Every structure is written in structure tokens, then in C-alpha cells.
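TA notes. Do not distribute before section.
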Amino acid sequence: MLLFKRKHPIKSFLKKHTFTNQTISDLRIIFLIACFFLPFIKIIGQPAAQKLKISPLTGDFYIYTTYNIYESNPVPANGMYLVTNNGIVLFDSPWDTTQFQPLLDSIQYKHKHPVTLCIATHWHSDKTAGLEYYRQLGIKTYTTELTDEWSKKNGKPRAEFLITKDTVFNVGNYTFETYYPGQAHTADNIVLWFAREKILYGGCLIKGADAENLGFLGDANKAEYESTLKRVKKKYRNPNYIIISHSDWNNINSLNHSIKMAKKLKRKTESKQ
């Protein structure tokens, strides 16, 4: 058996080439420059974080998603818009305040129609942040009277028009209704129902089918959460879509899962009393 000694490639290269002191000095400088700029090249090469995402739902319905930071993590916030023959209806406003105008611009570019109406589903900033901005642009903004009370109390943007009771809206060729099922995520949370398409827009009241908990409960009614969700389920049976704020909206089991979590929350709350 013949054994061959493996040659070291770097040593072989150095033996074949003669380097002057100036060449070695130049190589050192190039190496140092490369080490300095390499991290920046890596950063530049990375794609920028997406701030606005628009996804088709069904027909003239679209889901838009913006992002914000909660507990040091980026959290998506879903809203929805509807294209009618009498303008576009926006359901909730972007959570990211830098996306108020980009959302309008994207909608105008895509559909060649302006946003004419915006409805917020409760007083938290992930729903109401853009109300004043949109009002100043001439967009009709709506919340319930209860949401307006809480927005005023907490210094949040307020709508121009107030909904005094569960209301049916007729906008162009579409009809939808608002419904206040009771206290849960907040004291004022409402849902929206589109009967023809069987779309339930649940906002922050309903959590994702894969959620581990009911999210932020600082303004929640823990004792009533389960009952409120059950009222929604009883009133709007067999929806084709359930749109939620902070999780994947493709899973139709989100309402049932939220009811189960609310039941556990109620038991936990009662056990501490």
C-alpha cells in the first residue's frame, strides 16, 4: 500500500509565490477592511421588515395587517376592508401609526376607489389609532357611544359619528350589522356580521385557534368573557370566515377555542376569590 502525504494548500501556495513586505502590508489592510464592513454588508442584504400586508379574503373583502411591538415582540394586527360600488369601508385602523396613509394609498392604487367610511370595534389603540387622521381627510369615522366614552376617558382618538345601538349599515351593494354582545376583552367590544357572505369580524374579542391564552386582559371582564363569546356563537351560526385581530384568521375554530379558554379563565378567577 502506498501512502501519500497530503499537501497543505496554503503552504503550497506560499511556496509558489513570493510576497514583498509591501504586498503583505496591503493584504493586511484589505483583510481589516473586509472584517469591518462584513457585518454591514450582511445587514444591507437582509430584507426590510414588512409593515403592511394586504391579503384577499373572498370577493370584495380583504384583510390588511400592520405590526407593532408588544412585550418586546412584533405582533400583527389584522383589520379588514370592503370594496363597494359606493366607496371602500375600513374596519378598524392600522395599529402602526406610520401606515395610516400607506394603507389608503395601497387601497386607492389597487382598487381605484377611495376609503369613505371607517368603523372601530373597541377603544384600544390597535383599533382606534387612525380615527382622527382619517376624519381630517373627510372619511366618516364611527364607533359606538360606549367606545367613545372609553376613548375619551383614556385619551384615545375618537370618531366623528356614534352608533347608539346595534345598527345595520347599507353601503353601496353591501349590507352588514354591528353587534354588542357584552363585556369581554373590553367593556365596549363589538363584532360585525356580513350575512350574505357569512363573515364574522371578531376583532380582539376572539383569539386564534392556536392561541395559548386570551391575550391582554388588563381591561377585560374575566367573569363575563365566556358568556359574551357564547352570545356571539348563538347569534351567528356556522360562519364561513372568522376574522380575528392578532392571530391567523384562516382557522374557523377560533371562536370555539376562545370559549374554552374563557371558561378556564373564569374558573381560575373564581378559585382566587
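Switch to the second chain here.
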Amino acid sequence: MKQINCNGKLVDLSSAKIMGILNITPDSFFDGGKYNVPIQIISQVEKMLNEGTTFIDVGAYSSRPNADHVSEIDELKRILPIVKLILKEFPETLLSIDTFRSEIAKQCIEAGACMINDISAGKLDEHMLQTIADLHVPYIMMHMRGTPQNMQQQTEYDNLLKDILFYFSERIAAAKAAGIIDIMVDPGFGFAKTLEQDFELLNKLELFKIIEKPLLVGISRKSMIYKTLETSAKEALNGTSVLNTIALQKGASILRVHDVKEAMECITLVKSLSR
């Protein structure tokens, strides 16, 4: 049974769960600038909770390709008040913090968040792994090369799947050595990968079972959908549901999404297949 400990609450990931996205960055690729007023934030969190999300993932640093760099001070100024606001309104919320900086992680966990979602798997902050271990919180590590500013120039692999699986074996070993207990992996769709590589990754997603860690998939409204369909992120909900369904059938434990209701429907329908 795949269980993680979130603020003393055991969450069973042997049945798939939803992680709802709350971007408080002004330049996020889909909903940038949409949630920056307290009443809008509370309303969106309440909507996601009512629709069945298990986790809310809060990020204050856009990681889209070529995103603007945000200083640590500005990231903290953006995110910490939001963490406090959400937990004041909804104290039981399981908040995940989308950051690669250990100081942001530390302050947000101390404010009541329960897990860290790190796009760099500890590679952009040498103190991150030890900080997570000291905080005793679950850790999501993602595959990426470089930084959001230069990752799309780093898409050459000897063997895509082998290289990514090797990367995780190395990062998981480092995390375990630091003392981290609950580890999840995210293959990083759209991060240092071409559209063709994104689809190769999804097609072979079941190979990640070899890692024996819960698998998070974040493909919600991404360019692999809307560029393939020649539409836009705004029009990519149907495509998101299609690919989320495939991800669930290939072993995804957590779907990180903008649209909770539709993702919950995917989980319910896929679950019905195995009854």
C-alpha cells in the first residue's frame, strides 16, 4: 500500500488522487494573474476542495519555458501570505508548495503546508534535500534539465526513458541518504522535452513502476496537448482528460490539474473498469 504522511494524516495513494493547481504567479502559462486577490484565491480553493481534490499545489514561481526569474524574497512575499490565508479559511487543507528553494520550503511548512513539490529534485538548491528530511514531510521530485529559462535547449538524450529512470535512481538515493521517507516522482512533461518526447514518455509511463514510488503526472493544458491539436491552453481541457485517462491506466497515483471536477471524473471512470 502506498501511503504518505501529510501533517499526521495518512493519505492512501494506492487509489489515484487529485492535486489541484493554484498559481499565484502573474505569468503562468494558463492562469497567470488570475488568482492574486484574497477573495479569488479563497473561492478557487473552495471550488477545488468541493470538487474532490486531495491536495492543493501552490506556486509563486512560474516554471513555464522561458519564464521570468523571480528572486527568493519576491517568491516568499507572494507565497507565504497565501499559505496562511488558505489555512486560516480551510485548516484541513493538504497544501503542497511548488518551489525549488529550501528557505521557501521551510517557511511554508512551518506555516502549515504539508509537502514540497520540487521541479529540480534538489538540484537547484544544495540545502533542499536535508531541509526536507529535517522537516519530515513528503517530497515530490521532478525530472528536468537546467532551469525553466534554458531547459528547452536541453532535449537531447541517449535514451529518453533510460536516462530519466537513471536520473530518478540517483536522486532517490540522494534523498534517502539525507533521510527523506515519503518520496514521489514526476516525469516532468514539458520540462527539457520536445512534444515527441512527451508522447514517448506517456506511451511508456508504465515503466516507472520499476521505481516503486508513487507517480505524479502533470499534463494539464500543456503544450503537448494544445500544440498537437493546434488550439490553445484555454481550449485544452478535453485533451487533458484524454491524456489523464491514459496516465491513470498506466499507473499514475496523482494527477496535478487545473480542472478538478473533470479529473475526478477520469478517476471514477477508470476505477469502474477494474470493478
